[in-house]
Amino acid sequence: MTPTTLKDTYGLTISFAAVPTLALYLDPKSVTPFGIDGGDSIDNTTMTNTKYKTKSPGTLIELTDGSFTAAYDPGQLTLIYGAVNVNTLITFTYADSTSEAVYGYLKSFTPNEHAASTDATAECVIVASMTNDAGAETAPA
Hints:
Elements: E1 13-16, H1 22-25, E2 26-32, E3 36-37, E4 42-43, E5 55-56, E6 62-63, E7 66-72, H2 77-83, E8 88-93, E9 99-111, E10 121-128
Antiparallel strand pairs: 1-8, 2-7, 3-6, 4-5, 7-10, 8-9, 9-10
């Protein structure tokens, strides 16, 4: 099997299941998807070690925050503000039609400076909560 990579990332979309119309009013210009962090190592060094400190990986992993810059409709601020801190299934659909779905929430919406001949844009941060609506730990799909 030949490995493949995504050659052009243009066309990535983000959707929020609990607020489906949000994608109409927060149109991504650039996106940083969630990353993965294995956390700090566990120090296993004991008094019987003779030369090296020994370590083990932790058990739990964390998805790092994602972010995106979006053009937005200032007439829809009530909808946008209402979507902050709402835990929902967030789906990234990539340009090649593959997708990744993660439970999380829109943590912040920070408008950028408004200037002549530019779109109204905002910086948005999304957090992977890893818990579904019932509060159960849920892996990315």
